[in-house]
């Protein structure tokens, strides 16, 4: 050994067989002195799977050097050391543990039916075993865990929606597994999967040997078809005639006598034998013509909305309801009594009543009724503030009331739950067990369905409600209540009783106010009185008063014109001071002043520094109440500028109410106003939305508002909603509405339309959202198409579906009885000929229509122009225009038309004959190419007809000089019975002879004015149509079928068959999903979801889709951010700041100062939004990329970031120009988003993000932003 050692060259320090082994995770090392093997494999350097942590050298460069620069280093063939696994221990005992099987049977008591004596027990099998919220839509399924009872779970199936026709799941499960509905006529496959050809099972074999048919089938069908294939031809001919008489089908009657198709007929009948057996046995009565009027007779049965008469009093109310569920201190009105009677009968009602009429009485009775029945009621409102108010009111009345809004959950087990519509929607989709006990759902302010943003939620909820739930709809007066109720009744398959009030309980008087100083403060002009009469005198007086002041103003200041009287802030102040002074003297306070700008509300209130409308006792009451309300706030929050400013205003009896005010202050203002301590309230439109706070007077600062896109006048619905706040029931005889005329007096027409116009109709705002699509796609039994079919937007096309189905059955039986036209041999191109004729006639009609609409066409149709008339009475008859009506919408042409001279008594008879014969005419090429003019067989007569544009077949190049007036007078005179037999006057006779001469001179047709060259119609469609017409005219002569002797018969037969087929196709299209307006958009949205991987090729919802379902708004963007880990590495306050872009609706002028992390985050969100927008465009959706990206506004990112980091609210408010109330609303909504994101993170299995979202939610939940509502205390 020593010699060998000496022989080796000395080793360098790197060649020594020393190595370090890291043991475990604690960082303990041991020295290893083992030589490397022959292939260089050494001892592992660590017992950890990933080796030593990188040291000195950067990990990326080490990887690059080892794996990329020297690939020969990779031990490709020596993988023994790299493969590691831990063998699992077998646990056979785990296989023996199974869930407890549900009980298969139950015991039922057998009793004597007369005495009720117990005879014994029998075992009965239990249906619906194994049903759960994860696999069934049935109410028979077991309830879920108590924690999910209220809101349900995102993995639950919804309950089966009421009114849907599909079989319920119990029925499907009651069938045995193998028992399926197979139609052995249509559903059997003839080609095995993957094969190109299969076995032919068509009915051609039957044609050869009809004897193979089942005898019972033949006997059953004997009444319904003719045995034309029998060998005893003579015997059967009589039977055939009898059958034809019985059926009375015209088509067969005409064909019975034809000799040519006689050989064909027996085969035909044999061929359709089985079809006749299967189809004809049941619908025989439908195929006979007497049943034809049935479709018109059927729709009246389908009346779902039933108007209730409230004109006469309900005398027997207390007899019918001796023990009412609820009693009021006052006597209910007739409409309230009628509603209560229907509630007692468990009917659904729609109450459309004027503001302050007392709709809440109906809701209160329903709540009392459900408490009596020990069921539950859900009361939904469109606005959170309204939910809070109703909670307080109903809590005081009933006690057992709960509240569910986005951020509050109080007494969720109460019998009456008040919630926003969005929460009810999520409960329906998530299969909440609350629905099991639900008796009533009350929808308040249903006219909110017109809201473009949230209207769709109402429709979804109404469609998804289960069958046992009754509906109460409360709404302001709208014109189409019956139509809306009919829609709900139709989709829920239950009658809806519509109750409307006729007039307001407190009538309104509308005034114009032009005063602006102490002197003119009484310039108040009545415009509409309490009876609703518009007084023009009041309007002109107001205009006069304005003019007078303007002229005085110009006299005082020389020629210099005044800047709009009432334009400056000083002028505004004078107007308000004089108005308030006048109202105070007239005892017309309190007053609500509606102003359509938050800033102007604040300015108006701040201007009135000198106004003080309260007494000292009222001042102290206000002070005590205000201090009590804000006592729950933190010290710094009590000193907020808005709080201090509001105290000052309120003590003087002035209030401000708009979305920029802090929610707690808004509630203080509302409560003080309802107590009568706020004398003048400056409010925006939201105050009128359902908040039940009437005043004595309402003042409109202006009647123009900005609706998000531009300035416009108020529409009648908005004006009525706001003006309706005037007049307190039981306190005032009339309500006073005043419009301030600051600049000019508004136009009379605008005022009339606004005050007395019809309110806006309820319109569908249904649109598809990704959440809706994903919610329905995961449940196989519910289809998005069914949801779309039942939407209010599809109501007009779907309401006649029953009549359509009836007509389809009728047409199908007619079609089965029709002979199939012969298209063999010479008639083989009959179908192409028919299509060419149809196209030619349609294109000619289109060109003629465009000519009649064009300016040059109307010029050509002047008096004296010769035209060709073609309608039911006249076939290609020449006519001459005598007079053109001035009505542009329904233009008529009084025309002298030549006809046969006939005795007057024959008139009607010939008319009906020509009318009947016209459809059966067979168009031949010569008739189509040349207009063969009508020539009378006997002496030529004339008539004068008023023709519409469709009656004029062509405009000829000829004109005649005539005295049109004389001809018209002469004809009018001859219509009087005394002069009926007088000969026509010379003018009429000359004109008739002239037209006859033209017709005889050119019987093949006069030349027409060319639409392009003569009438200068250069429109592309017209030019293309003319070219197409010429092409069709050229090919017409090439058809062979017209030379066949049987052409006429077969063409008529083919045309009749085609007409039936076309009508059938049209009706089937109307009933199919293809006619849905939103179907293309649905397919586009599904394509977007498929491209993003939310659903697979078969439409099943994937994991990504399950994540998106947890999020209600901006689901695509938030899911993408969550799945690409953009949020996981950020801190909670940074995540919540970035998410504020989804709830912030306002633009800010100030540029926020943001750290670089947030800047990067914003850029990333914008890039993700752009990718989604581009994908939507690619899939065909219309929304532009800019609009999609622009909806995410980052104005409040800094505010939310600082708030989450703990900055006080007073400092937050200084960071931005956005008003305090809007900041609070934004952060409150952000909390909902945080919770949704937290749930979504749980679905994806990301505990880090789940914890961060939880932390973020807790960070923003503090102080004034989440101060509890005063109504819930």
From TrEMBL:
Coiled coil: none annotated. GO terms for molecular function: 3'-5' RNA helicase activity; ATP binding; hydrolase activity; RNA binding; RNA helicase activity. Residues 340-496 form the Helicase ATP-binding domain. Its main location: cytoplasm. Residues 237-255 have a biased composition (Basic and acidic residues). One of its GO terms (cellular component) is Ski complex. Residues 229-267, 281-302, 901-924 are annotated as: Disordered. InterPro entries: Beta-barrel_MTR4, DEAD/DEAH_box_helicase_dom, Helicase_ATP-bd, Helicase_C-like, MTR4-like_stalk, P-loop_NTPase, RNA-DNA_Helicase, SKI2-like. The lineage of its organism: Eukaryota, Metazoa, Chordata, Craniata, Vertebrata. It catalyses: ATP + H2O = ADP + phosphate + H(+). Keywords: ATP-binding, Cytoplasm, Helicase, Hydrolase, Nucleotide-binding, RNA-binding. This is SKI2 subunit of superkiller complex. It is found in: Cytoplasm. One of its GO terms (biological process) is rescue of stalled ribosome. Residues 612-777 form the Helicase C-terminal domain. The keyword Hydrolase applies. Gene3D superfamilies: 1.10.3380.30, P-loop containing nucleotide triphosphate hydrolases (3.40.50.300).
